[in-house]
Design goal:
Blueprint (H helix, E strand, L loop, with lengths): L1 H13 L4 E4 L2 E4 L9 H6 L15 E7 L2 E8 L7 E5 L10 H9 L3 E5 L17 H18 L4 E5 L3 H12 L4 E4 L8 H7 L3 H6 L12 E3 L13 H9 L3 E3 H8 L15 E6 L7 H8 L6 E6 L11 H16 L3
Parallel strand pairs: 5-6, 5-7, 7-8, 8-11, 11-12
Antiparallel strand pairs: 1-2, 2-3, 3-4, 4-6, 9-10
Helix pairs in contact: 4-5
Keywords: Hydrolase
GO molecular function, one term: hydrolase activity
Pfam family, one: Abhydrolase_6
């Protein structure tokens, strides 16, 4: 009970601040200590020499979208030639992406990481009413807004379910220079559904058993997704499972029924880098390759050795870091 009270106090503290509106962004003045240590909890699993300088902290900003406010963490760099938008997956949030955002900043990117609707600190009228299509629209709209505000080249990095969101954003906007993803899960595939879900029946029968009448029920992701396979590091898996984020059943149902706007055979929006963990027990490489191998655009595959679904293990995390540097160099025209 005490931890619940402390958590509530922490979030109330986070939501205090002064709004400063610039274009369609609302910037809040907040102290990093209000983040309740979530960022550092995830950073702790990076190899020591890859952890950022303690002085590197994200800035909290807010973007008005569909009557709500999307929380976006940023590492501004006015001298950066390339910007990177990082997109989390189901059950994730910006703080969970901080280790990868910090590595991207270290490779020269200006970085932004949104909390997608219903997760993290973003504010929506009803989290239980959020559908997968809202996430697709949100990421695409954010790409458009960011490109309108800043013409620098933009790369979208998608982790887990965020991989398909990055793909959709590039296909829908035509404004992305490249996408980098850790996996590409097409939920139309029974094999993909079996790997996504905690229960085998999800792969066999899929969305029809998740009837709309229960769409508004909110459940922790750990109860429906195979989150015990998040990492091969027990401590990291425990951290993720304990993270109190939950999504509506309607979100899962609409995700399982989703169809990409552009089939991979017709996707030519930008090059695609698949940076796939080599020891991913949740979504093995074969699942992603069913979609990736069909993509018409120039594409690159890198298997991250000994890395799990949340890829922080050596040597995979170093390979990912090098790949980010290579992508930056390529997009910047070096």
């Amino acid at each position: 009970m005490a931890s619940k009270v402390n958590s509530d106090r922490c979030w109330r503290g986070v939501l205090r601040g002064v709004d400063m509106v610039s274009r369609n962004r609302v910037v809040r003045t907040e102290d990093y200590s209000n983040y309740c240590g979530m960022h550092d909890s995830y950073l702790a699993f990076l190899p020591d020499d890859l952890r950022p300088d303690p002085g590197l902290r994200p800035e909290s900003t807010w973007w008005r979208w569909r009557g709500g406010r999307i929380h976006i963490e940023r590492v501004p760099r006015s001298d950066a030639a390339v910007r990177m938008l990082l997109v989390h997956g189901g059950g994730g949030h910006a703080a969970m992406m901080w280790p990868f955002a910090a590595l991207a900043a270290r490779q020269g990117f200006e970085v932004l990481v949104p909390d997608l609707p219903g997760y993290g600190r973003s504010e929506v009228e009803s989290a239980g009413a959020v559908r997968y299509s809202d996430w697709v629209d949100c990421v695409a709209d954010l790409v458009r807004a960011e490109k309108a505000a800043d013409p620098r080249p933009l790369v979208v990095f998608g982790a887990s379910m965020g991989g398909m969101l990055a793909y959709e954003a590039a296909a829908r906007t035509g404004m992305v220079e490249a996408i980098a993803v850790t996996c590409l899960l097409d939920p139309r595939s029974p094999l993909a559904r079996r790997r996504i879900g905690r229960f085998r029946w999800l792969g066999r029968f899929g969305a029809p058993l998740l009837v709309p009448v229960v769409d508004g029920v909110r459940v922790p992701m750990r109860l429906v997704a195979n989150m015990t396979a998040m990492s091969n590091l027990p401590g990291l898996t425990a951290t993720v499972i304990a993270d109190p984020r939950g999504g509506g059943v309607g979100f899962l149902r609409t995700y399982l029924c989703s169809v990409p706007l552009v089939e991979p055979e017709n996707f030519t929006a930008c090059p695609v880098w698949l940076l796939h963990p080599g020891a991913d027990r949740w979504t093995p490489l074969a699942v992603s390759r069913m979609f990736f191998d069909r993509i018409a655009a120039p594409k690159h595959l890198l298997v991250l050795d000994r890395a799990s679904h949340y890829p922080v293990e050596d040597p995979g995390i170093r390979q990912l870091t090098t790949a980010l540097a290579d992508i930056h160099h390529w997009v910047a025209g070096g």
